[in-house]
Amino acid sequence: DAGVIQSPRHEVTEMGQEVTLRCKPISGHNSLFWYRQTMMRGLELLIYFNNNVPIDDSGMPEDRFSAKMPNASFSTLKIQPSEPRDSAVYFCASSDGTLNEQYFGPGTRLTVT
Amino acid sequence: SQQGEEDPQALSIQEGENATMNCSYKTSINNLQWYRQNSGRGLVHLILIRSNEREKHSGRLRVTLDTSKKSSSLLITASRAADTASYFCATAFDYKLSFGAGTTVTVRA
């Protein structure tokens, strides 16, 4: 298996623009997580999907953030409109059980100018 | 908060030496996991220890868990330059993993 795939790897955009991050989890995994990593706040869980259903989105910073999982092999995280404080590395992770180890993608480094 | 806190924040050792880092947490857990992150990369799972286990080994890694003290330690034996990375403990409760701030380990050749 290729592991968790994320795209793009790097994204530079201007404030106010829409940003869409993409994730393909490992085949057969039923849990998907989106995290954000910054120097100031470390790794934060943004949203958790189980069997394509959002279970916990309490970590989503505000209404500008939204996430979808239309099927078991694809998820998106959208920021609209983006702001400079959204600059971070965004990770997607998947797991075959909610208490099992998580497999992380390489991350998307987002820079909002 | 479930979040683990690692100690020390940074560690510099000579190749061949052992590296030990600690993690403390505040509430109940189902298991505790350790991850490694190389600079600019994603996190890689190293080892998982369940709440009813006290010690676990995987290759050069040894993890202990003391639920009465709410603490865990990760020992890397015979360190190599390739072990240079940040190491994170993550406490698992229900579906949620809560990560600490990490320990940055530098292994000098």
Put simply, the count of helices of chain B is 0
Shape of chain B: globular
Give the SSE string of chain A: EEEEEEEEEEE
Strand share of the residues of chain B? over 45%
What is the share of helical residues of chain B? Answer: under 10%
| Terminal Cα span of chain A | 36 Å
Rg calc of chain B: 13 Å
Largest interface: A-B, 22 and 21 residues
The shape of chain A, in one word, is globular
Derived structural class of chain A? mainly beta
**Main sheet of chain A?**
7 strands, mixed
Fraction of helical residues of chain A: under 10%
Describe the structure.
- The complex is a heterodimer of chains A (113) and B (109).
- Chain A is mainly β and 113 residues long.
- In chain A, 0% of the residues lie in helices and 55% in strands.
- In chain A, 37% of the residues are buried.
- By secondary structure, chain B is mainly beta.
- Helices cover 0% and strands 59% of the residues of chain B.
- Chain B has strands at residues 5-7, 10-14, 19-24, 31-37, 43-50, 55-58, 61-66, 71-76, 85-93, 96-99, 103-108.
- In chain B, the strands form two sheets. In chain B, strands 2, 4, 5, 9, 10 and 11 form a six-stranded mixed beta sheet that branches. A five-stranded antiparallel beta sheet of chain B has the order 1-3-8-7-6, with no helix packed on it.
- In chain B, 34% of the residues are buried.
- The mean pLDDT of chain B is 93.
- The interface between A and B is medium-sized, with 22 and 21 residues.
Task: Give descriptors for this structure.
heterodimer, A: 113 residues, mainly beta, B: 109 residues, six-stranded mixed beta sheet, five-stranded antiparallel beta sheet, 0% helix
Map the helices and strands.
The complex is a heterodimer of chains A (113) and B (109).
Chain A: E1 5-7, E2 10-13, E3 19-24, E4 31-38, E5 42-50, E6 53-56, E7 65-71, E8 74-79, E9 88-95, E10 103-104, E11 108-112
Parallel strand pairs in A: 2-11
Antiparallel strand pairs in A: 1-3, 3-8, 4-5, 4-9, 5-6, 7-8, 9-10, 9-11
Chain B: E1 5-7, E2 10-14, E3 19-24, E4 31-37, E5 43-50, E6 55-58, E7 61-66, E8 71-76, E9 85-93, E10 96-99, E11 103-108
Parallel strand pairs in B: 2-11
Antiparallel strand pairs in B: 1-3, 3-8, 4-5, 4-9, 6-7, 7-8, 9-10, 9-11
